Amino acid sequence: MLSTQALLGGIGVGETTATVVGATFLWFMRDFTGMLGSILFTLHQGSNLDSSAKQWRLTADLLNDVGMLMDLVSPLFPGAFVTILCIGSMARSVTGVASGATRAALTQHFALRKNAADVSAKEGSQETAATMVGMLLGMVLARLTAENVVALWVSFLLLTAFHMYANYRAVRSLCLTSLNAERTSIVLSAFKEGRKVPTPREVADQEHLLPRIPRLPWQKQRAGDAWLPKSIRFGVQISSLKLDDGWKSFLSLVERYSRDPYLMVPKGAIVHVVLHKLATPQDFLHGYVHALCLADLQLRSPADQSEELAISWMKNNYTAFLDSLGKSGWATDRILVETGEWRAEWITGQKQE
Q1: DSSP letter for each residue of 218-263
Q2: Nearest residue to 337 (alpha-carbon basis) of 299, 294, 290
Q3: By the 8 A CB rule, do 322 and 288 touch?
Q4: pLDDT value of position 8
Q5: Among the listed residues 209, 228, 138, 134, the one whose alpha carbon sits nearest the alpha carbon of residue 170
Q6: Rounded CA gap, 267 and 291, in Å?
Q7: CA 135 from centroid of its chain's CA atoms
Q8: N or C: more exposed end of the chain, with fewer CB within 10 A?
Q9: Which residues in the chain show pLDDT less than 50?
Q10: Pair type for strands 270-275 and 262-267
Q11: Helices and strands in the chain, H and E counts
């Protein structure tokens, strides 16, 4: 309510010099940039929202606070009012897309009885009730701080700090059993080091809470940090890889991975994974674990040996790793990672059987 009051004042509500056309134009610019921002965000990050639901849930709340801050600041800079207004609108539009998409993903986690519709309806009702209480308190607070700028800013900053802390604690306590790129790298690292596979609760304490934020120089390295998905491209187009010997290289790859519904193509520090069109969600998990092993071995073994070592490790240890995941409480029916839409077709030993 505080930001809305400031925004309306900046548009000119209550001033004799303000015109309907001017206010309409400002509101149009605000809505237009917000719609444009939501489209661009979906285009760039839409495929990451499932795999990073926790991270984008917190980011959405942060951007919502940024949007309200822009509304509150905008009247203070008349010369840049439109620019600040549009920045705030774009921040809130990203909030709308990210919060809506992650809400759907998290609803599936809480629907333990496969009652996603029931959980979604009750969550929506609770949010509506909380919003109504907030609006009533906001009206009272806006009335009390209407003539006092210092009180307005102190109230806004304190409420924003409390809002972000509450959301941080909520997201940190969220314990997901589904596997994504970071969680898979953490549990696989523990397994390869001979340690017990950590439970979802233990991994939740190690996860990053913002999407793809690199480790700062003074931060301690945590399990899985070196295995983040920057080194893996999943579901790539085979023709985009420009294999050295063309068709011969492809036949060699098919022979090497004859029993797997995917092909591994390491190029430099990047592992490219070509998926078979009949690959299942369980195959995606198998392929991603294989890619993580190969990416790790490339750092410690000669390039011509790392592929064979990775294949050998998967053959001897993957079943035991999968069993350990299940015993620790992880869902092993799929993995949530950013996956390209390209699929290829070839004859595999697995399919022939």
Answers
A1: TSPP-TTGGG-GGGEEES--GGGG--TTTHHHHHHHHHHTTTSSEE
A2: 290
A3: no
A4: 57
A5: 209
A6: 12
A7: 30
A8: C
A9: 214-219, 221-228, 351-353
A10: antiparallel
A11: 12, 5
Rounded-to-integer distance, Cα 337 and Cα 284, Å:
9
Please report the pLDDT score of residue 227 as a whole number. 45
Scanning the structure block, which residue is given the tokens 């430099």? 268
Sign of the Cα pseudo-torsion (238, 239, 244, 248, in order): positive
Scan for tokens 């890619």, then name that residue: 291
**Tokens encoding 4:** 């809305």
> Taking each helix axis from N to C terminus, what angle separates 2-11 and 149-173, rounded to the nearest 10 degrees?
130
Paired residues of 344 in beta bridges: 276
Pairing type for strands 232-234 and 270-275 reads: parallel
Q: Which residue has the tokens 């600040």?
A: 84
Distance CA 181, CA 187 (A): 10
Residues 326 and 107: their CA atoms lie apart, in Å, by 22
One-letter amino acid of 147: E
How far is the C-alpha of 287 from the C-alpha of 275, rounded, in Å?
8
The answer to whether residues 276 and 344 touch, using CB atoms and an 8 Å cutoff, is yes
Helix, strand or coil, per DSSP, at residue 352: helix
Please spell the DSSP secondary structure of 44-80, one letter per residue: HHGGGTTTTHHHHHHHHHHHHHHHHHHHHHGGG-GGG
Rounded to 10 degrees, what is the CA torsion of 296, 301, 303, 309? -70
Contacts of 203 (CB under 8 A, 6+ apart): 183, 186, 187
Distance CA 197, CA 190 (A): 6
DSSP state of 210: S
* C-alpha–C-alpha distance, residues 201 and 123, integer Å: 23
Place of tokens 């420009």: 242
Q: What integer pLDDT is reported at residue 146 of this predicted model?
A: 74
DSSP run (H or E) holding 275? strand 270-275
- Residue 265's SS3 state is strand
